[in-house]
Amino acid sequence: MDRRTFLAGAASVGSLGLAGCTALGSGADAPSDYDVGMGAAFFRPSKLEVKAGETVVWANTGNRRHTVTAYENQIPEEAAYFASGGFDSEQAARDGWMDGFEGRINAGATFEHTFEVPGEYHYFCIPHEPTGMVGTVVVTE
């Protein structure tokens, strides 16, 4: 069984037990095919391992606006920078958020990135970074 099939099934089972809990999404609006969910102020799972060349999909399963923003100095040196909104740097992503919530991932929306270079990629949500909304993708050969 691949991880997306497993996660989709686990999300369905989890959502049945949490019906009516607004922190995890609003049923029909919540995406069903994703690797990392975004709740009130967390990424779930907070650490994910994938193989080089795989695409990771983040889904906003909550009600707040979020971002997926790489820590520029905490990704492999040869890797392409990534951030929701298509920014080229961490500072540009932060500035975009401050100038009008650019790069936001609204409730029910997704963001994806393909990881080509093995290594650890640390990322965060700009508005929820102070509360510890951080995550890691570990890319293996």
Distance between the termini: 20 Å
Number of domains: 1
The name CATH uses for the topology is Immunoglobulin-like
| Strand order across the largest sheet | 2-1-4-6
What portion of residues belong to β-strands?
25-35%
CATH superfamily: Cupredoxins -  blue copper proteins
Question: How big is the Rg?
Answer: 15 Å
Instruction: Describe the global form.
Output: globular
| CATH architectural group | Sandwich
What does the model show?
By secondary structure, this protein is an alpha/beta fold. The protein has one domain (3-7, 29-140): Immunoglobulin-like (Sandwich). Helices cover 17% and strands 26% of the residues. The chain has helices spanning 3-17, 90-98, and strands at residues 36-38, 43-44, 47-51, 55-60, 69-70, 110-114, 119-124, 134-140. The protein has a four-stranded mixed β-sheet with strand order 2-1-4-6, with no helix packed on it. A hairpin with a 4-residue loop joins strand 1 (36-38) and strand 2. It is globular, with a radius of gyration of 15 Å. The chain starts with a helix and ends with a strand.
